[in-house]
Amino acid sequence: MSSTLTLSTPLYTLSISSSYVPKLDRLQLSTVEDLLFHTPRKYLDYSRTLSITDTSDLETGQLITITGEVISKTQKPIRGKKLRIIEVTFADTTGQIKAIWFNQQFILKQAQEGTIMAVAGTLHRDGRTPSLRDAVLEPIKSNKSLLHTGRLVPEYATTKGVTSRFFRYHIASLLTSSRLQIDDYIPSHIREEYALEPLRSALRKIHFPNDNQEIKPAQYRLAFEEALLLQLSLLRQKLHLETFTATPLAFQEPEIKRFVSELPFELTDAQRKTAWEIIKDTETSLPMNRLLEGDVGSGKTIVATIALLNTALNGKQAAFMAPTEVLALQHFHRLLGLFHETSFIEVPKLAVITGSEARVSTEPELGHWTSVSRKDLVRQVENGNVHIIIGTHALISDYLRFFNLSFTLIDEQHRFGVNQRAKLQEKGMSLSPQAHTMPHLLSMTATPIPRTLALTVYGDLNVSRISERPPERKLPVTRAVTPDTREKAYAFVRSQIQNGEQAFIVCPQIEENEETGARSVFSEHARLQTNIFPEFRIAMLHGRMDREEKQEVITAFRNKAYDMLVTTTVIEVGIDLPEVNLMLIESAERFGLAQLHQLRGRIGRGGGKAYCLVFPSGKEQPERLQALEQTTDGFELAEYDLHYRGPGQFTGGTQSGYSTLRPEIFTDGDLLDKARSAARTIITEDPTLSRYSSLRTKLDRFRQTMHLE
Ligand code: ADP
Ligand code: MG
C-alpha cells in the first residue's frame, strides 16, 4: 500500500538507491522538503525543438532539441591520444544529423539502435554539415513529459555521483506523485493579499518552468517565504524579550559631565548625540538592544565608555567583549588612562580577561594595573569588587559569574556569532519567578549595515550612527594603482620613507597559494626587500607568529627600527600605530570595499597626512575601486558591497545559516517591507501560531537550519 509523502518524509524511505543517501547528506538533503527546495542554479534553454532539416541553416552555438531514431553508432580512438570519439546518427522524416561526444562511453549504452530519442545539444557547423555537441539523450515515452531535453532544463548544485539528471528525475517524480501532499504553510489570506504563488505550483514552476515567465513568480514566492520566516522568527523573539526587564541605570549627570569635560578632546556632535541616545535607553527598565555604527576612528569607544562609566556609577557591573586579545588589552589600557586622568575620587575598578591574561586596575601609585591569577579575577568579578570587565571570548566562559551585570557591550559585533552574543547576555540574566531580567546590550561595528540587511538580520534593531569623524581624523587620500603606474607609486613611497614616514603593506594571505594567485606576506616581503627597496628595513607581521614575536615586531616598528611592515589584515583591528601614514594594499580584489575602508582607517590616526595605495591584480572591476577613491562614506561602500559581493561579509560568511538564503531577501527593500507587514499580521492574529500549525512546524525547522536556536 502506498502511503502519503509529506515535506518531512525522509529520503531514505523513497525509491532512491541507498548508496545515494550519504551523498545527498553531503548536500544537506535528507527529507522530501530538502529535495524540493534544492532549487536550480540555472536553466539551460533547450526549448527550441526543430526538425532535422531545419538545423541546416543554424549558426554554431545554438541550443536546440531534435527528435530522431538512432540509426547507427560508432566509436573510434583519436590517434596518439587516449580519447575516443563517439558518434551517433539520428534520423527523422526530414533528414539525418550526427551527434559527437569525446570519451563518453555511456552514450553507447543509452543510444540503442531503433529507439526514438530526444536529443538536446549545441549545434556545431563544420563547413556545411551541422552536428550536435555535448548532447543529452532522453528516450521518448508516450505518457511522460520530457525532463532533460526539449524544455528549459534545470541545472542544480551537484556533488560527486549526484548529477543534475538525478535531481530532475527524482524531483519530477515527487512533484507528479499523487502520494505527495503539500500543505501550504503560508495562510491563504496572506497569499492572496501579497499575490503569492501556492507552494506546490511554485515548486513545479521553479524546477520545471514551461517558459521564462513562470520562473519569476515562483522565485518571488520562495524568497517571500524566507523573508517571512525570518521576520516571524524575529518578531517572536522580540515578544519573548519583552517579557524581560532590565535594571534602569540613572544618568549620573554631574560625574559624566565632569568626565566629558576632562577628556583630552572635545566630543563631536555625533558622539554627544549617540551617547545621549544610549543613556536615554538605559534609563528605562526595557532592555536596550542598540547597535552603534561608525567608521573606524569615528570614536565609538569613548561613547561606549560613557555608558560603561554610567553603569559603574550606578553601582552595577558592565562587561565589554572584544574579538581579539590585542583589542581587549588595548581597551583596558585606554580606559585605565582615561579614568585616571579624571578627577574622580573613586574610579571604577577595571579588569581584563583573555585566553592568557588576567589583569585588574590598581591605585596609580601602584602602577595603575597588575596581573592576577585567573582565580583571583574570577573571585573579584563574582563578589562585585570589579565594575567594568573587559575581555575576549574568555568573558563567556562558564567559570566567570557576575555579581550584578547590567550592561553589556560588544565591540566589532559582526565578528561574533549569534550564540556568543547571546551567551554574554545570559551572564546577566535572571529567570527567577519574580522577575525575568537581562542586561542592556550595546553592540558596535565599523561595518555599516545597509538598511535592507539590518531588517533581514535584526528586524527592528535600534541603530545609533556616528556619521562625522573627529576633525583631526581625516581619511587618507586613496588611489588605485594600475600595473603601469606601480613604478611611480613606488617612487612616491620611497620619497615618503626617506622623509621619515613608515608604511604598511597589506596582503590577503600569509603564504603563496597557487589557486588564488594573490600576493602573500612571505613573497611580497622577499620581493620588496631584494628587488624594490633594498635600502629600507622591512619587517613582517602575521597571525602565524606567536604573541611575543608579534609584540616584539610591533614595538620595534613603533620605535622606528623598521621602515615598512608587510602584514595581513591582522592590523585591521586593534594595533595602535597612529604615526603610520602610508598603506599599500596588494591583491585588492580579494577584499570587500567595507574592509578596504576599515583598513585605510588604520593609518593617519596621529593627524598626519596619509595615503592609501590600492593595487588590484588582473580581474578587478575598476569602478569598484573608484568608489573607494571617491567616497569616504562607509555606508555607501557597504551598499556597494552588498549588491556586488552579496551579504556574506555582513552575516558571518559561508558558515552562517544566512548564506543559504536567497540573495534578494537582503537587498529587495520592497519584498522585505511586505514580508515584515505579513509577519506582523500573522503574529497579531495569533501570537503562538496555534491556528497555523504547519507554519509553526516550518518555522521551527527554519530556525534550526539557520542556527537561530
Ligand atoms: P573607533 O570608532 O574606531 O573604535 P576609537 O574610539 O578607537 O574609534 O577612536 C579613535 C581615536 O580617536 C582614539 O585615539 C580616540 O581617543 C580618538 N578620538 C575619539 N573621539 C575624538 C574626538 N572627538 N576628537 C579627537 N579625537 C577623538
Ligand atoms: Mg574600535
Rough shape? Answer: globular
Counting helices, strands and paired strands, the structural category is alpha/beta
Ions, cofactors and other bound molecules: adenosine-5'-diphosphate, magnesium ion
Q: End-to-end distance, in Å?
A: 38 Å
**How many strands, what sense, and barrel or not for the largest sheet?**
9 strands, mixed
Keywords:
709 residues; alpha/beta; OB fold (Dihydrolipoamide Acetyltransferase, E2P); Rossmann fold; 9-stranded mixed sheet; 6-stranded parallel sheet; 24 helices; 25 strands; binds adenosine-5'-diphosphate; binds magnesium ion
Topology:
Elements: H1 20-26, H2 32-36, E1 42-45, E2 49-50, E3 63-77, E4 84-92, E5 95-102, H3 106-110, E6 116-126, E7 129-139, E8 152-155, H4 164-176, H5 188-193, H6 199-207, H7 215-241, H8 253-261, H9 269-282, E9 289-294, H10 300-313, E10 317-321, H11 325-341, E11 350-353, E12 358-361, E13 369-371, H12 374-382, E14 388-391, E15 405-410, H13 418-426, E16 430-431, E17 436-437, E18 440-445, H14 451-458, E19 462-466, E20 477-480, H15 486-498, E21 503-506, H16 521-532, E22 538-541, H17 547-558, E23 564-567, E24 582-586, H18 593-600, E25 611-615, H19 622-630, H20 634-645, H21 648-651, H22 664-667, H23 669-685, H24 693-705
Parallel strand pairs: 2-3, 5-7, 9-18, 9-19, 10-14, 10-15, 11-14, 15-18, 20-25, 21-23, 21-24, 22-23, 24-25
Antiparallel strand pairs: 1-8, 3-4, 3-6, 4-5, 6-7, 11-12, 12-13, 16-17
This protein binds adenosine-5'-diphosphate and magnesium ion (MG).
Residues 265-268, 271, 294, 296-302, 446, 470, 472-473 line the site of adenosine-5'-diphosphate (ADP).
